[in-house]
Amino acid sequence: MAVISVFMVLVGVIMVLGGLLIIAAAFLTTLFHMGVATSGAMLFTGVYLYVLGAVLVLLGIIDVILGWGLWKLRYWAWMLAIVFGIVDALLGAVTFDIVLVLVAIIVVVYLWFVRKAFR
User: Fold this and answer.
1) Is 79's pLDDT higher than 60?
2) Is 40 exposed, middle or buried, given 0-12, 13-18 or 19+ CB atoms closer than 10 A?
3) 40, pLDDT greater than 90
4) What letters, b where the CB count within 10 A reaches 16 and e where it falls short, cover 81-105?
5) Average pLDDT over residues 34-51
6) Helix (H, G, I), strand (E, B), or coil: what is residue 25?
7) What span, in angstroms and rounded, lies between the C-alpha atoms of 15 and 71?
8) Measured between alpha carbons, how far is 104 from 98 in angstroms, rounded to an integer?
9) What angle do CA 113, 67, 110 make, to 5 degrees?
């Protein structure tokens, strides 16, 4: 269980940092284009980057909390990890990402077999 929880925390931290970098890039892009006539596409791209960065930060925070909950053997963390694992497997199947599908299935199956620890 420790491996999955530590992995979740590390992925969460990486997602938060990546989201913050995307937000910083969007800010710098906006800053450098101030006063310059920009097209609607450029403005949409800036807004898109802000939203993408914010979503990554939010998902990263959720991953860190989920990793902590798995470490503490909390039932809510087990349930959310199962749900997110199924969603990841479906997303991987839709995008033809076989690695994501395999990792998600392995995590869900493992969590299913150790579910008694979370009661």
Assistant:
1) yes
2) exposed
3) no
4) beebbeebbeebeeeeeeebbebbe
5) 70
6) helix
7) 19
8) 10
9) 15
